[in-house]
Specification:
Helix content: 25-40%
Number of strands: 18
Radius of gyration: 44 Å
Strand content: 15-25%
Number of domains: 2
Shape: rod-shaped
Structural class: alpha+beta
Low-confidence stretches: 450-465
Length: about 475
Amino acid sequence: MSRSFKSLVSIIALASALLFTALAAGQYLFLNYQRHQSTRDDLQTLADGMQEDIAFTDAWNLQGYRRTTEGPDIYVVVTDSGMLVDTHGYLPGMLSRVSLPFRFDFDRPFKFASAVGENWNLYVHKLHDGIVILGVRSEITPENFQERFVANAVKFGPTVAHAVDIPERAIDEPFDYAIIDSNGAVRWAIGGIPMRSAVPTIPDDPVFTAVRQIGKGYYSSFVQPLKDKSGSKVGVISVFEDISDEQRILAQAVKFNALVATALWILTVGFSAVFLRRGRVPEITCTQIPLLQESDTVEFKSSLRWNYRENKPDPGMERVVVKTVAGFLNSGRGGNLIIGVDDKGNLLGLQADYSTLKTRPNRDGFEQALRNVLVNAFGEGPCAAWTKVTFCSLQDKEICMVKVTPATEPMYPKERGIEDPALYVRLGNTTTSMSGRQAVAYFRERWGGVSLRRPLFRRPAMPAA
């Protein structure tokens, strides 16, 4: 797999991860927005309908409302003083602790005129841990309501837990009822049984709450203020919708998308890490040098200019250094050329090379000579971009390290008297030249099918030090 192909795969993987993450986030925001808007519209329609049916002007006149309204599954209507007008269902906190605005004897029917102008026949039945209040408005009271009070009260069982499990259809149609526990909290209520709760906070304008956790469920709510002709607030309608299923489905979608996105990011980061690790030149410190051996990324050279076998300066040594750097440039991993160490790992230092430098026989002169050699061979641009020269001391001997980064295009070293320079590559711990089919195959593997062309960088000649 070529380096350019790996780079392309990395880019595609990163783009895919980013795209999926963006799509998943966009999907969540869109679905959440759609659900919010749909729920708001539904609840506002219900609240507006209830407000229109109540039709408050100067006083509460609920006969038309009682005949026509079909409220939602969970709602409550209270006056500005906290008197209950109408309710259905139960949510913790929907009604605060209530009090009863009438006196009663258990299991004995009695009449009561509520604060909103309705006349009721009521019946209070005692439970072990609370009470049940049955009621029917006078205008719809059946003839045998006393016997039916008794018969319906028995259906609620002995405890509040039994009472809240009774289905609405089990209680006769004309009767409203409320189940109140021993702490004064309403556990279930249907209709307008006269009760007093805390004075409500009535907003100036309608308020929609998209998601609100109540108990173990999630609900949306819409609060609609009720006002008289003068604009004074006289009551409030609170409408609720159970969105637990929608919230759960949305949460599951988020978890699934998060898992997929996480998997994509792990694959992307993992692939990129492996790719970058393979493409990164191994870092070598001075203290590691005595422990190293020559490899595909490490090469020892005894000198830049001095021939130790003949014990004299030798310009041919520079060509060996150039070929080694070319091999690292054309390899897929780059490498480190260490000058001042022979191929057996013996520390020789740079003193012999320093002796060949006339004007500056020191580290600075050596670095200038080395850079001139490399610039003459490859050009100033490639040397600046892909080579780095550093020095260190071991056993009082100076060592030069040339870190070579893989080139993004094939590099041909300029050699004196040679019109068509060779392509040098690194194979194991040696540098070799390639040509013909072998070179073409290497091009495809290394640069993804790059044509056999001359480098783009110009290599101006520079005088040697």
